[in-house]
């Protein structure tokens, strides 16, 4: 790709302590992206306070030498949301595309993105309809089959989008490869910097999410739809350190525990009912017992904490959204099970 002015698409890649072989594949894919005739692209790599400065990595220096339309900036505040907002402020295009540092987009990603934006002007945020997994080290087949969804594996056969407030529709796009109209990104940036939205997304070893969810909800509140398209394809590169049950359970807990706090920030009308959603001790204990007995009956105790994680995440998320001091023993159980 060769960038000329004005820039039509801005690519943002938040990076935190990257694994060099993975980042090398991502940068190679970015360099190979095809563009429509005459269009121009810029790429901003956001170093989110990595222990070793990203711009000093040999693979990054080589990429920058070849791709003069790319640069590195630094965001010292830890958290994917801060990286995303720093990238928004550092870019100029009417269209912003955010790839994680383990996302390998298909060569035609930008072309399909432009097609989607031009064909459906009512959609403010698009995402990939097809996400394939590439485990960089061998994993058991049972692990791949059972936990593909935990790594966002997706195979959507047709375009689908909609506008559903105060809810997370199945066709809403996750943060991976999000294509965002500038007006939506600016509204989200304003809400974050104004303190109305505070989800920081993944922060160091904390696997909470919510920032990408809140960005989609900002589009919805503006009257835009959000959706996915099967022509938008990404490969999720998964290193050995993440291909295990410990990581899966922490992701499940992080996603579940961050949902309601993000929801009540985005839709203030939800605050009035959140305290009514706090489950009783009896309900919590009953659910924990049922999940445990189900795993015992199936001789699947190795999955127990993985199946407990989303339920406990929902409870913790409800307590945090309600700013409640009730059910404090649940936080002790979360710590004991190493879910956070």
Topology:
Elements: E1 9-15, H1 20-31, E2 41-47, H2 58-66, E3 70-74, H3 80-90, E4 95-98, E5 103-105, H4 109-119, E6 123-135, H5 141-147, E7 154-155, E8 160-162, E9 178-181, H6 182-193, H7 211-221, E10 225-238, H8 245-266, H9 271-274, H10 281-297, H11 304-321, H12 329-336
Helix pairs in contact: 6-7, 7-8, 8-11, 10-11
Short description:
By secondary structure, the protein is α/β, with parallel strands linked by helices. 42% of the residues lie in helices and 18% in strands. The protein folds into 2 domains: 9-243, Spore Coat Polysaccharide Biosynthesis Protein SpsA, Chain A; 250-336, no CATH class.
- β-sheet strand percentage: 15-25%
The CATH topology of the largest domain is Spore Coat Polysaccharide Biosynthesis Protein SpsA, Chain A
The oligomeric status of these chains comes to: single chain
Please state the average pLDDT score. Answer: 92
CATH superfamily of the largest domain: Spore Coat Polysaccharide Biosynthesis Protein SpsA, Chain A
- Quick one: how many beta strands? 10
The poorly predicted ranges are none
**Gross morphology:** globular
CATH class of the largest domain: Alpha Beta
Structural class: alpha/beta
Structure annotation, total helices: 12
- CATH architecture call of the largest domain: Alpha-Beta Complex
* Spatial gap, N to C terminus: 41 Å
Helix content: 40-55%
Note the run of SSEs as H and E. EHEHEHEEHEHEEEHHEHHHHH
Radius of gyration: 20 Å
The count of domains is 2
Major sheet characteristics: 10 strands, mixed
